[in-house]
Amino acid sequence: MTEFKAQPPAGLEPSAASRAGASVYELIRDDIVSGRLKANERLVVAELAQRHRTSTNPVREALQLLRGEGFVVFSPNRGARVRPIDQDFVRDIYEIGVLIEPALARWFVGMATLEDIAELEAIQDEIERNNFADPIRHSELDTRFHTIMYERHYNRHAAELWWKHREVLRAVSRRFSFTLARRAQVMREHRELIQCIKDGDAERAAALVAQHVEGSGRHILEQMRAAEAARAG
Amino acid sequence: MTEFKAQPPAGLEPSAASRAGASVYELIRDDIVSGRLKANERLVVAELAQRHRTSTNPVREALQLLRGEGFVVFSPNRGARVRPIDQDFVRDIYEIGVLIEPALARWFVGMATLEDIAELEAIQDEIERNNFADPIRHSELDTRFHTIMYERHYNRHAAELWWKHREVLRAVSRRFSFTLARRAQVMREHRELIQCIKDGDAERAAALVAQHVEGSGRHILEQMRAAEAARAG
DNA sequence: AGACTACAAATAATGTATAATCAGGCGTAG
DNA sequence: CTACGCCTGATTATACATTATTTGTAGTCT
User: What is the distance in angstroms between the Cα of B159 and the nearest Cα belonging to chain A?
Assistant: First the structure.
């Protein structure tokens, strides 16, 4: 069986410049995406340096990198703040996914080999065997399922964009669990998608992926709204 | 008449942290996008610091920012290199544009006011008056034309993405000039687009934008191929 | 009193300088 | 051809200067 650990598509993980830099970058990024750092929270360089046992230089660089990726916002002479991973943000990126993923999927239908299809089915089997019992595992399997379809796409830019968005959504949805309705929907859509690929029906596959991503986005948004309502009420 | 200087959509220009930082960032970025820095060229921090009369810190931060935006690639312990703005790169981003811009345009059709349409027409008049005589001016007007349609879109992420891609394409195409065929096509498509918006025909507007972006991308790619062939032959 | 302004101190970003380490590349000796 | 050692430059670490923003205080005006 193949590796079922969620991995970036092609051969390129941003992988920060080096040891300290990479670790600071990843730690801060995780803190943002997972919600440990609150929206709009100030990111004071000296504090972060102390917390992560490094000097200020790597922290400053990590923040700039995060700025370039959109996770951190700078105001001149007032430093960095956490970009809020709020409902708007999630909606924005899943809507972009709805536009991009169908195109990636359409291409895949024309390129899929028997091995690809076998692997998709193996993963789907595994997803069903797991049946959401282990949410982390489900997330990894599901990500892998889509990665197989997108990772060989010639448009590296689009694939990279997809992967970045995927990571954010994955981190956000870790906070929630799947509703029964959504579980059934995921299973059904994956199976249907595999069938489309087998049939070589690119258009239907694209439409299905659009629907799948749309559904996934809606699901997360509803969970976020519910959580917020619970917090407020 | 309104401002015809190309400007970012909403109120947010990345605008690096401060004077020196911003200028280093912009200068390096321009050098990359305009082709003054060649593909895969090494970006030695000390050199850049000297050339731009600053210390190494701002340079390193600018490079990290550029990395986050995808213009620079890092290898651990071997520093930064220019990400090649080659045909693949251009194709990648214009293809993404073909997917995203129609969605932005579709939304605009449902939101356009009489003032918006008047402004689009004014700009198109201006474009026709200029008639590609001043290419820079044409580029600014054309960018403004599209900015009007996209800048108020609720999906800030998508609008920002569009703007970043637009800047790259603008810089690349500065090296070339418009073929007669392309000139006519631009005029026709803009006028048709305005008509669609007046009619409230969102679907046709979206299709037209897709075609328009597709055509623009193809045009640039062909120019790039021609230039490369000329260089090689 | 309440509110507003001017100025001073505190906080932190930004830029500069310099050193210490470390990894990779290159040339030379064996 | 391989091993050793040197050189370049990346990366990290400090320390400090400069600048901008924020905050607080005191004095003044209404």
Answer: 10
